[in-house]
Amino acid sequence: MPFKPFAIVKLLAAAALLLGAAAVQAQEKVTLQLKHVHQFQFAGYYAALEQGYYREAGLEVRILEGADGNEPERDVVSGKAEYGVGSSSLLLSRLAGKPVVVLGVVFQHSPYALAMRQTSAEPDIRRILGKRAMIGTLANELGNADELLAYLIKEGIPASGFERVAHSFNPDDLVNGKVDAMAIYTTNEPDTFDRVGFPYDIYSPRAVGIDFYGDNLFTSERELANHPERVRAFRAASMRGWQWAMSHQEEAADLILNKYSRRADRQHLLYEARQMVPLVQPVLIEIGYMNPERWRHIADVYAALGMLPKDASFDGFMYNVDGERTNLAWLYRVLGGIALVLVLGAAVHFSQLARERKRALEAIRQGEQRFRTMFEASPLGIALIDSVSYEYRDINLRYQEILGRSQHELRLVKWLDVGHPDDVVQVKAQMALLASGQISSFKANSRLFRPDGTLAWIDVSVTALDVPAGGAPLHLCMIEDVTAQKQSEALIWQQANFDTLTQLPNRRMFHDRLAHDMLKSRRDRTRIAILFIDLDHFKEVNDTLGHAQGDVLLVEAARRIGACVRKSDTVARLGGDEFTVILAELDPAEQVEGVERIAQQIIESLRAPFALGQEQAFVSASIGITLFPDDALDIDDLLKHADQAMYAAKGAGRNRYSHFTPTLQVAALSRMRLTNDLRGALKGRQFELYFQPIVDLASGAITKAEALIRWNHPQRGVVSPLEFIPLAEASGLILEIGDWVFHEAARWVRRWRSEHHAEFQVSINQSPLEFQREGDSYQRWLRHLESLQLPGQSLVVEITEGLLLDANSTVSDKLLQLRDAGIQVALDDFGTGYSSLSYLKKFDIDYLKIDRSFTRNLAPDSSDMALSEAIIVMAHKLGLKVIAEGVETPEQRDLLAAAGCDYGQGYLFARPMPAEEFDLMLRSG
């Protein structure tokens, strides 16, 4: 189709309308102030911005680096920033009268710790006495220093027991001995120490029960009062970003390197990400969750330091995610009363037991001591429990560690109070059987909640114990922590069944669900539709914007496809840019119309632009549709038929859907058979080289020819290259065929240079697959030309513009090899592809071949004539010769010659002919 100059005006107008529409949707601008420089510690906020979560929430967010840890608090309180990232010292600020409100906790455990040079096998924190230590700033502002100072005091080391110097935040100061101890983040400095081979010990406040929160997202009371919906939207988008960052660590690291900072290399960012997992605990705890009891624990630590009064109230400090405040004080008082009654009852009960035991104590003392040793030293958690009241009678240390509670805390609760509600029902049912004597023991896999809100998995073994007549029934509960095993199993199952990029079901899960839906379809006599979706032009996005942005597009494409189907349907990613959809339980009344409506919705959804960073990308979709049981009865055939239908949609012009028909199966079978026949064509000498003359328009002389391959099939006759070349490329046979074409062309050009014209040239076409292959193929060609005593100028290699679009190092190296050998290069079908003038300037091109679509409609004052003249003038100014293809009339020849075109090729001069006929034509003059 001829190029219309006024089409540019239409495109620019459409673009202006789109830009205008986008400008209308203004977003609220807010600022997030970080407490340090850009690093993985803040990856969730980068992800929320780059993945578009903030944009979807109606927010335009600016993320600023911090110069010191207290900058976020200063800026949020002053109104310079709406949101900030702070430490647990926010609690001190709140109680000091500053209007800060914590929106959510990101680090469930603080990464703050103390590092010292390792000097012996046994770490000893008391080595800090009398030494120099960098712990926080020396200013009066609050920060993580309080956490470490509380730790040292609890270890018996007062602040006056060591020399505190200003923190440089440079690990080299500890490595080089400038200081003896340094406050560090366990997610950062250990990697630096390991790289330089520095031996170190790490001391964490958690070792003595000081368990602070790490990074916290916070805002001001002013922001919360004036913009409650904005606060809710910002928090939700931020937590969504954190979920993405923690489950896509490598992509998040690449995002930081590409968009935010290269201070740390990729290896360090991934180290930081791995160390953050046990601190953030994204699998066990919803990111953003915070526990009032944990804040109370932090307040108690501050109170012990004299920085807060005991039992200080921090009402309003924690953001209520559900939008309402729940006063639990009455509940605590009731529970406290119940606990007091239980303790008093337990005291009376134990007093009675003591009198009974006293008479037999001496007899069983030795046995008791042996049992006690085994009980306390057991690697399993063991507890003795009243089978009626579910009160704890005895608990070993390991049981306390697994539950994360002290013996005193466990005495105040009952056995199943900390269990997951779904599992408690099962355990109680087993206990009823135990109480009735139907069973004497049972095992279960259960979940329980720890005080910090984390969920732990345990294997439980319960055994009934014999008790004296009239005594309260008891049972022995033994538990083993299998949380790590469960997490590993969950991760393995997730990776085995779901795509790691899009989180959609993968091929394995897709097959399982389709098999299940097929069984149900047979039983209910319903139908299933399978949609095979392939993104058109996705490779161009990967090639131009990079694989990282390609991945972003795939994630968004998965979301859009999912939005077009029912929740009961399955959307899966089979790999690359291929998606599938299972539409089950179709309504017989509108099954065809309904499937087509969904397919068209998917096409329309994917046609909308994709925002990829600062760029926009456009793709479309080709969809193949097949029905069960109409088109096939097994999974492999259904997928094969859907794939065939998808390729039919691509062949029909892309951006459409196509149903499977038996004709497609016949065509696919024909292609398969033709490919099989193609494998024996070279050995069977079924190929033949035709030549078409290229005429000098000024003199009428024939000094060039284009070599064109033909396949003489023994049964089908002559097969068009348009039919078998794509099959040769898909099967890899194009490389062998290309070598055969080269050797044949070299044989004939040698003859014509010696007998017809000393400068005669033959052009051979190169597939992109041939041009991009690795190895020494061109070196072998050059050695063959030398053996025939032919210069490189005897051949011209014709390539297409599309090859130069992906001009990687391999393509550039091959072009340099050709130039150095004297082999010239022609750009075929010029004007129909990308037509970037930068390619002509960047690469060594000798000829431009004007495509026949321009030549076909040449007429004076036509747009095709204007474009042809422009191409000719441009080429000559760049030092290139021009060959016009498709010359069929004397008028076309004369117009091209008048425009300065160098050569013509087409039916006016001669059709392609076998080599012998071409030779006779040259001989006849």
UniProtKB/TrEMBL annotation:
Signal sequence, start to end: 1-26
Domain PAC, first and last residues per copy: 442-494
Pfam families reported in the protein's UniProt record: EAL, GGDEF, NMT1, PAS_3
EAL domain location: 671-925
Protein's UniProt keywords contain S-adenosyl-L-methionine: no
Metal-binding in keyword set: no
Keywords: Membrane, Signal, Transmembrane, Transmembrane helix
Domain GGDEF: start-end pairs: 526-662
Listed InterPro entries: Biofilm_reg_signaling (IPR052155), EAL_dom (IPR001633), EAL_sf (IPR035919), GGDEF_dom (IPR000160), Nucleotide_cyclase (IPR029787), PAS (IPR000014), PAS-assoc_C (IPR000700), PAS-like_dom_sf (IPR035965)
Annotated TM spans: 330-350
Protein name listed in UniProt: EAL domain-containing protein
Organism, scientific name: Duganella aceris
